[in-house]
């Protein structure tokens, strides 16, 4: 096994967790910055000339570091998929595979079930609800909550912000309701 093969394996929680935890102190040392990705959409809109008053601010001062961070996420995702992908099929526990079968999905060893995530599926009612509707709700929710899940859960909770605690509880409750109540209905369409 070479060093690249080691990187292709999932990182254990005791390595990944502390690395994520070190993000907040690093951002504080870099000038009291907050972690989150959803604000980047506002920064991108602020770059466009002739915008509404909400987007009229100095995005270079407020958001340039965050845009570089978002670019790093894209670059890291590319490296992860192209260079560090594990060629082995995804191994699911038998219970998870049975739960997927009960929802009408056949596990195929991929991270995203091809029965749902494909171009033809996007044009179906359930595809539109899952991908387009879900994407809209995630964007709306991030704006309504004043930040995304990563910003509230990593920075906000570390700063002991009550609003972040309420937001994270809401994110988890929304995820549970969606997974256990809405998803079976949508997949049944």
Shape: globular
Low-confidence stretches: none
Q: What is the helical fraction, as a range of percent?
A: 55-70%
**Number of H/I helices:** 10
Q: What structural class do you assign from the helix and strand content?
A: mainly alpha
Q: For the terminal residues, how far apart are their CA atoms?
A: 45 Å
Domain unit count:
2
Q: Tell me about the largest β-sheet.
A: none
Helix-strand pattern: HHHHHHHHHH
Give the C-alpha Rg.
19 Å
Percentage of β-strand residues: under 5%
In total, how many beta strands?
A: 0
| Average of pLDDT | 84
Concise account of the structure shown:
The protein is an all-alpha fold and 189 residues long.
Would you spell out the secondary-structure blueprint of this structure?
Elements: H1 3-7, H2 13-21, H3 23-29, H4 39-46, H5 59-82, H6 94-102, H7 119-122, H8 125-144, H9 149-158, H10 162-187
Q: What features would you describe in this structure?
A:
By secondary structure, the chain is mostly helical. The protein has 2 domains: 1-85, no CATH class; 109-189, no CATH class. Helices cover 65% and strands 0% of the residues. It has 10 helices and no strands. Helix 4 (39-46) packs across helix 5 (59-82) and helix 9 runs antiparallel to helix 10. The protein is globular, with a radius of gyration of 19 Å. The N and C termini lie far apart (45 Å). 11% of the residues are buried. The model has no long low-confidence stretch (mean pLDDT 84).
């Amino acid at each position: 096994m070479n060093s690249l093969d080691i990187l292709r394996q999932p990182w254990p929680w005791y390595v990944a967790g502390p690395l994520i935890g070190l993000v907040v102190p690093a951002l504080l040392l870099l000038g009291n910055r907050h972690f989150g990705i959803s604000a980047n959409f506002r920064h991108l809109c602020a770059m466009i000339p002739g915008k509404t008053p909400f987007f009229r601010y100095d995005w270079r001062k407020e958001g340039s570091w965050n845009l570089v961070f978002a670019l790093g996420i894209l670059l890291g995702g590319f490296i992860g998929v192209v260079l560090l992908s594990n060629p082995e099929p995804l191994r699911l526990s038998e219970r998870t595979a049975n739960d997927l079968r009960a929802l009408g999905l056949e596990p195929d060893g991929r991270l995203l079930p091809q029965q749902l995530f494909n171009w033809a599926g996007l044009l179906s009612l359930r595809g539109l609800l899952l991908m387009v509707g879900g994407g809209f709700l995630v964007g709306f929710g991030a704006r309504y909550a004043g930040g995304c899940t990563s910003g509230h859960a990593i920075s906000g909770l570390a700063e002991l912000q009550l609003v972040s605690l309420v937001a994270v509880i809401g994110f988890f409750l929304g995820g549970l309701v969606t997974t256990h109540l809405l998803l079976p209905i949508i997949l049944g369409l």
